[in-house]
Amino acid sequence: MTPYLLEVRGVSRRFGGVRALTNLSLNVAFGEVLGLIGPNGSGKTTTFNVITGVFAPSDGDVTFMGRRISGFPSYAITKLGIARTFQNIRMLKGLTVLDNVLVAAHLHHKVPLWHALVRTPVSTAEERRLRQEARELLDIFGVLDRASEVSGSLPYATQRRVEIARALATHPQLLLLDEPTAGMTPAETRDTALLLKEITRDISAIVIEHDLKFVREIASRITVLHKGAILTEGPIEEIANNLEVRKVYLGRENL
User: Fold this and answer.
1) Which of 13, 190, 194, 233 is 20 to 30 A from 58, comparing alpha carbons?
2) What is the pTM of this model?
């Protein structure tokens, strides 16, 4: 049995004549949090898009729990246990905060559709269970008091928290977080780091983030991308002291 939850092997992704990823290989162990960093345009979000089925790889394979998932549609990959957030928030902005999370929770609805159509007692009980689960997630992220508000009216940082709660409602084994603290204040970033440290005790994660202090808080290992390929990878302190990474990542020698 593979020791890895996720394996990306020799993946390339081309858009016409442009290579967004070149021979990318990385893995995530069970219970591991991997930081994925690199300058803008280095291929970080494209990596997430390939893993989650938004794009099929031009070459190479992605396996999850030993099963090849390359070419699977996004909904099937989510159902298998991979959830994500987005660099540009993708809330259902006309729905309430609670309904946004419920949409995701219904992925694991345990009652046949006909029960819901005629609203049997079994369906009503299942809906009550899902609603309670959604409310508990909102409470964890400190936004339960805004459950009935239309999500599009929320501050940007609050929408970020709701989006993470929505991803967790799918019961993922692997959580992909694309700049989860963008738009947050330093205090909100610290609180989110503490919360994610607790959450990732039970699930694996890959985190894209420009805030290296935040990455240090929750990740045990870092992979650095540059121009669609891996520049280097290793333990956080080793990467932080890598002169080449400092120059490529920030254009200076301080991380």
Assistant:
1) 233
2) 0.88
* CB-based contacts of 155, cutoff 8 Å, min separation 6: none
Q: Residue 25, class by beta-carbon neighbours within 10 Å (0-12 exposed, 13-18 middle, 19+ buried)?
A: middle
Mean pLDDT of the chain: 88
Total number of domains constituting the chain: 2
Q: Are residues 154 and 176 in the same domain?
A: no
Comparing C-alpha atoms, which of 33, 73, 55, 9 is closest to residue 208? Answer: 33
Q: Helices 156-168 and 121-140, interaxial angle, to 10°?
A: 130
CATH number at residue 204: 3.40.50.300
Return the amino acid letter for 80: L
Clarify whether residues 13 and 47 are in a common domain.
Answer: yes
- Taking CA atoms, 115 is separated from 1, 39, 122, 125, in Å, by 39, 50, 7, 11
CB 153 within 8 A of CB 144: no
Nearest Cα residue to 208 out of 24, 50, 38, 26: 38
The stretch 76-96 carries a mean pLDDT of 90
